[in-house]
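Final report, Chapter 2: Outcomes

The project's central promise was a pipeline that accepts a single protein chain and returns its three-dimensional structure in a standardized token representation, suitable for archiving and comparison. That pipeline is now operational. To close this chapter, we reproduce one record exactly as it appears in the project archive, with the input sequence first and the structure output second.
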Amino acid sequence: MRLIFLGTGGTYPSMKRGVTSIAVQLRSEVLLLDCGECTQRQLMGSSVSFMKISRILISHLHADHFLGLPGLIQSMSLNGREDKLVVLGPEGTADMVESIMNLGHFDCGYEVVSQELAPGDYIDAGTYGITAANADHTVPSLAYSIEERTRLGRFSLDKALALGIQPGPLYSRLQCGETVEHKGIMVHPEHVIGEPRRGRKVVYTGDTRKCSSVTDLARAADVLIHDATFDSSLEEQAVKYGHSTARQAAEVAVEAGVGRLFLVHISPRYDDSSRLTAEAVEVFAKSMVPDELSEYVIDLPD
């Protein structure tokens, strides 16, 4: 699993940052978290292909989170896309997508499907699942969890050999969850395979005040990508406009027990984000504001 930070700013693009958009690569599939203006240009300068995007998760319908959709959808079509594209989001997403598809002489050579979600909704995507939760913003807004399925436990060669089973086809059958017979004894997978191992988990908040629903969604996540629009001196303004400070984002990271925190939706007022990083690190050491087009690989847990 790999994260590519296409944009880390909020409200409007600045000389330092594009507006928030993050690509999540899962094997050959790419998910896009929000799609502000200029996202397709950032994608062209990144290591991922926009043609691989299968789902776009829109957190809410403020323009800096979806204005990149018309150009991206059209560019996919001009490059010969045939695969369906799914745009997920809160109430109003279907109308937004329909409006985009009705712009001028907008010609699209593939199917674009919208799907509106409510807090608590879950999408089974095969090897991973997407969970939506309520985010506390000034308009209906969703936070998202992307979590891989639980993996099989580790195969114990020592236990297999102790049972007299030599390397060969029986190992594969046991690893696939099949009970096998060896010298008249039935050997079950649990005899040679350890406890199931969890998959990787990423949580993206979109724009939000600090709230319990996001903390609950982020429990034990490998990575939390959290709104950190302002520093603590502007906490009153953050609350008024439905955002978080860097310190509040770090508090959520601590309360949720996450592995790493990335601060995004940085206000254009900050040419230098070091103040935000320092504030968050005081509370949660593994905090940072990612650079534009930087990447982060999430390793499989043991």
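Archive annotation: The first helix runs from residue 39 to 44.
This record, like all others produced under the grant, will remain available to the consortium after the project formally closes.
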